[in-house]
Amino acid sequence: MPFFLDYMILIFLASVGVIQLAALKNGLKGIYLVRPSVLNLALALALTCGSFIWFFTSEPRNLPDDTLGLDGNRQAGFYLIGSVGAVVFTLLVTSLLHRVYNGKALPSNEAGLDALRSSGYATALKGAFIRLWKR
Amino acid sequence: MEALKQADSNIVIWLNQWVGEYRVLDQVVEVVVSDYFTPVTLALSLLWLWFATRDPGKRMTTQRAVITAIASLAIANLVVLMMNDFYFRPRPFTEMQLNLLFYRPTDSSFPANPAALSFAIAFSILQTRRGAGAILLGIAAIWSLSRVYAGVFYLSDVAAGAAIGVTTVLCMNFLLRWLDPVPTAVLRVGKALHLA
Hints:
Number of strands of chain B: 0
Structural class of chain A: mainly alpha
Number of strands of chain A: 0
Radius of gyration of chain B: 18 Å
Largest interface: A-B, 42 and 36 residues
Largest sheet of chain A: none
Oligomer: heterodimer
Number of domains of chain B: 1
């Protein structure tokens, strides 16, 4: 597999894990990938630590950044793609899961990230657009 | 000046003499010094700080610090690249007999780009989140020193890189105060989209 793909997989998986850890810390139940907090914690730790362990043990990673490895700019670019991808993936999947678990729930009235404590992302976003429309 | 250069070389030789003595330490350092472990860890810390802060007021200042960190690391990177165009210092392993734990970089040793980037991120966060900032400063210091241990930087390269990182953040604080509508708009849009 090309090196940049390995790097993107590391970023994507670790970012999904870190977002879940942050969601657990902040109580953002609307973006939990797994409902019981303990299982979600286990999943988040497995994704974060596992991706690092896989990346650094599967192949030698001290590669010259101007030939086989990635230079700083390409690293930053791939990081951005991987982490934004992880955010989008999390929001899409958890919105679907929230819909399956809760049906057509009413959107939260809270602003910003706080809305994700009780609403799925799609529901919260829908609520934001409705409030904007009614203004 | 010659005495300083000699002291710089002596520090690298003294630290590098331990390479090969403890296999486990070398294996850990090989991961820590890599181009990927610490930068990814620092970047993931910013992602964590963005989403994990519970108190809305504290979250706003933390997210501003994350924006400052991202802007500062871009500027610090640019400053180091520009300095590399004007001044080239050979790497320690080209001038001394060292045991390398890293590949052989061909760019200038002075100033150390990894130190500039990592200290820029750590110092940005330290201004608003003391605990998290102190941890990130520790990570930045370990990364920078491990590169000296691995034989690819002198201590003065790392110190100069750290100074560039910290100075960039101080300048960025001033600049972002002046350009305040931009981060405020970013956060307002993020909040409207339930992402901040």
